[in-house]
Amino acid sequence: MPRISNKGIKMPESPIRKLAPYAETAIKNGNKVYHLNIGQPDIKTPEVAMNSIKNLNIEVLEYSPSAGYESYRIKLSQYYKKHDLHVDYADIIITTGGSEALLFAMGSTMDFGDEVIIPEPFYANYNAFAISSGATVIPVRSTIETGFAMPPIAEFEELITSKTKAILICNPGNPTGYLYTKDEIMQLAELVKKHDIFLIADEVYREFTYDGDIHYSIMNIPGLEQHAIMVDSVSKRYSMCGARIGCIVSKNKEFMATALKFAQSRLSPPTFAQIASEAALDTPQSYFDDVVKEYRERRNTLIEELNKIDGVLVTKPKGAFYCIAKLPVDNADTFAKWMLESFQLDNETVMVAPAEGFYSTPGVGIKEVRIAYVLKKEDLIRSVQILKEAIRVYNLK
Questions:
Q1: For 168-185, how does the pLDDT look when each residue is reduced to its tens digit (9 = 90+)?
Q2: Residue 364 clears pLDDT 90, i.e. is over it
Q3: pLDDT the model gives residue 47
Q4: Residue 69 burial (CB count, 10 A)
């Protein structure tokens, strides 16, 4: 029988999507499922983006340039400059989602056996992208007890070896909602310059900060130009997850020339979605003001309700729209499946993402779940009511 690749065997299941069949069965059995497992906002996509493709009159759906349409990259660079990121359009390659940008970043900087240091818990697909690139994730651990604060910079430095090619952060963080301070970003910048490695920052949640805290981008740091690689996406910013449009940004010309070869090998990013993404840049600021206000209220509601459950430990996220909660159960993965398979409260149940899959260290996060507060406040309140009762019944088994 033909053998499957070792990479394929090592490729992890998505903790966000692996329980989907259980949810589908629960729905077929007549239950309503509140989806707190996935960062799919219910916020409407800006009309300006939707209208741009509704009104198209294209007779031939052509390839776009491998780096993406120049008009879009020029307009995107203007958007960044408006946010005090002085990026030229030549510093941008459009990708098929932020996921492809991360694949290009790892593929362009890492060879088989190389290492990338990532604070954990981290977006689960970072593991998958590293495996695809033949690289090894070296985790530096943050904990729920510290609010998932960045570990001391000395812990990063202890992990750097001759195989280390990059440090990768998500800012604000998925799955924790942690927002790095300017001082923390500067510490990381000095470290990567000292050891001549890359600093890759996934900044797709840049707009989503809630308490007056300011997002500080790695593209703002003078002297870091040859080390900084930024990953971005339209998915969350404009509630356009299905567009699958992102970008990779760097002033390192050798890196960008290499990333372009990866872009050429996949031909081009989606045409219609680029047109919609370019139009989305005309979204008025009022849209973001309303969205951020809504997410702030949802966050406050969720944290307030979770804190009412005895034995639950949760920290208040500063950005993005996720939190990690530690539950009073023996195993969050088993509990999450059980909620979908065997539990309902008035024909309703809840789907969460077991957090163990957001760690690289074996056995860590077993009692934790990631919750995405992408539902309206009333649904969040109801979801936590169901969760509370589910914990009670589960622990009586």
A1: 999 999 999 999 999 999
A2: yes
A3: 95
A4: 19
Which amino acid is residue 385, in one-letter code? Q
* Nearest partner of 313 among 262, 246, 365, 245, judged by Cα: 365
Do the beta carbons of residue 267 and residue 61 sit within 8 Å? Answer: no
Give all strands of the β-sheet with 313-314 in edge-to-edge order: 313-314, 322-326, 368-372, 353-354
- Cα–Cα distance between 321 and 39 in angstroms, integer? 8
Collapse the DSSP code of 393 into the 3-class scheme (helix H, G, I; strand E, B; otherwise coil) and give the result. Answer: helix
Own/partner long-range contacts of 147-150 (Cβ < 8 Å, ≥24 apart): 147/178, 147/315, 147/316, 148/121, 148/173, 148/176, 148/177, 148/178, 148/315, 148/324, 149/178, 150/119, 150/178, 150/180, 150/184
**3-state percent helix, strand, coil for the chain, nearest multiple of 5:** 40, 15, 40
Q: What is the pLDDT of residues 307-345, one digit of tens each?
A: 999 999 999 999 999 999 999 999 999 999 999 999 999
Under the banding of pLDDT at 50, 70 and 90, the label for residue 13 is confident
> Exposed (0-12), middle (13-18) or buried (19+): which is 176, by Cβ within 10 Å?
buried
**If you compute the radius of gyration of the chain from its CA atoms, what whole number of angstroms results?**
21
State pTM to two decimals. Answer: 0.95
Q: How far apart are CA 72 and CA 281, in angstroms?
A: 9
| Cβ neighbours for 142, distance < 8 A, ≥ 6 positions apart | 119, 120, 121, 148, 149, 150, 151, 176, 178
What is the CA 170 to chain-centroid distance, rounded?
A: 7
Q: How far apart are the first and last CA of the chain?
A: 43
Q: List, in sequence order, every residue forming a beta bridge with 229; answer none if it has no partner.
A: 200
Q: Which of 73, 101, 86 is nearest to 244 (CA)?
A: 101
pLDDT tens digits along 237-251 = 999 999 999 999 999
**How far is residue 43 from each of residues 33, 171, 189, 239, 319, measured CA to CA in Å?**
19, 21, 35, 6, 17
Instruction: Report the DSSP beta bridge partners of residue 170.
Output: 202
What's the rounded Cα separation, in Å, for the pair 75 and 135? 34
pLDDT of 116 over the 90 cut: yes
